[in-house]
TrEMBL record:
UniProt entry tagged with the keyword Amino-acid biosynthesis: no
Stated name of the protein: Thymidylate kinase
A single MF term (Gene Ontology): dTMP kinase activity
UniProt xrefs under SUPFAM superfamilies: P-loop containing nucleoside triphosphate hydrolases
Domain Thymidylate kinase-like intervals: 7-197
Residues making up the signal peptide according to the UniProt record: none
Top-tier EC class: transferase
UniProt record similarity statement: Belongs to the thymidylate kinase family.
Catalytic activity: dTMP + ATP = dTDP + ADP
Alphabetical list of Pfam families matching this protein: Thymidylate_kin
Purpose of the protein: Phosphorylation of dTMP to form dTDP in both de novo and salvage pathways of dTTP synthesis.
Keywords: ATP-binding, Kinase, Nucleotide biosynthesis, Nucleotide-binding, Transferase
Length: 215
C-alpha cells in the first residue's frame, strides 16, 4: 500500500505555486511512483462535476447540493484514481480533499462541519490521508493576493464570496489543524514563495524519509 498525501489551504495561500516549484524535487528524490491529482476533478467524470460546481452561472445552486456534488466527485475520483494508485504502492499527492469540503461548505456555507464530514465519510468509505500539508495564510492576505493577480486567474463561484466567508474558512482550517496534529502539518504561507517552498519540501523529506533518496 502506498501513501496518501493531501495539500490544503485557503484561497490565496499559494499552494499551486509551491507545488509547481517542489514537484521536480519530489520526482527526483522519491523512490516510489508519484501520482499528482486534484479535487474537485482528477477523473473525467469528476471533472464534469467540477465544471458544474464552479461555473459562475450557477449562482442558484443550493448549499447542500454543492456539498453533495463535491462528495460525489470525490467518490468517483477516489475509486478511479486514488485507490488504484495506492494499491500499486504509489505516493498519491492530491490538491484538496475532505478537509476542503468541511471548511468551505461546512463552515463557509454554514451548513455544519460535522454534517459535511459525515457526507464525506460515506463517500470515501473512511479513507483518510496519511499526511496533510496545510498552507496557512490569513484571509485578508490571501484575498489581497488573489486581487493582485485577478487578471491572470479564472473567475469561479467561490471567488464571488464575501470576506466573511473566507474568514470562516480560515478559522475552520485552524480548528482542523489543531484537532489533527499528527496528520496535518502547518506551513506558514505568508513569507516569500521560495521560503514557503523550502519549508514544504522539508516536510515532505521528513515525513517520506523511507522513500527519500539523495541520488
Amino acid at each position: 500500500m502506498g501513501r496518501f498525501i493531501t495539500i490544503e489551504g485557503p484561497d490565496g495561500a499559494g499552494k499551486d505555486s509551491v507545488l509547481e516549484r517542489i514537484l521536480p524535487e519530489l520526482r527526483k528524490h522519491l523512490s516510489a511512483e508519484l501520482v499528482v491529482t486534484r479535487e474537485p476533478g482528477g477523473d473525467p467524470i469528476a471533472e464534469q462535476i467540477r465544471h458544474l460546481i464552479l461555473d459562475p452561472a450557477n449562482t442558484a445552486m443550493d448549499e447542500r447540493t454543492e456539498a453533495l456534488l463535491y462528495a460525489a466527485s470525490r467518490r468517483q475520483h477516489l475509486q478511479a484514481v486514488i485507490e488504484p494508485a495506492l494499491k500499486r504502492g504509489a505516493i498519491v499527492l492530491c490538491d484538496r480533499f475532505v478537509d476542503s469540503s468541511i471548511v468551505y461548505q461546512g463552515a463557509g456555507r454554514g451548513i455544519g462541519e460535522q454534517a459535511v464530514a459525515d457526507i464525506n465519510a460515506f463517500a470515501t468509505a473512511g479513507r483518510v490521508p496519511d499526511l496533510t500539508v496545510y498552507f496557512d495564510v490569513p484571509a485578508a492576505v490571501g484575498l489581497a493576493r488573489i486581487q493582485a493577480h485577478r487578471k491572470n486567474q479564472q473567475f469561479d463561484r467561490l471567488d464571488q464570496e464575501a470576506d466573511a466567508f473566507h474568514e470562516r474558512v480560515h478559522a475552520a482550517y485552524i480548528r482542523l489543524a489543531q484537532a489533527n496534529p499528527q496528520r496535518i502539518v502547518t506551513v506558514d504561507a505568508t513569507p516569500a514563495l521560495a521560503d514557503v517552498s523550502a519549508a514544504a519540501l522539508a516536510v515532505f523529506k521528513d515525513r517520506l524519509s523511507e522513500y527519500w533518496t539523495e541520488d
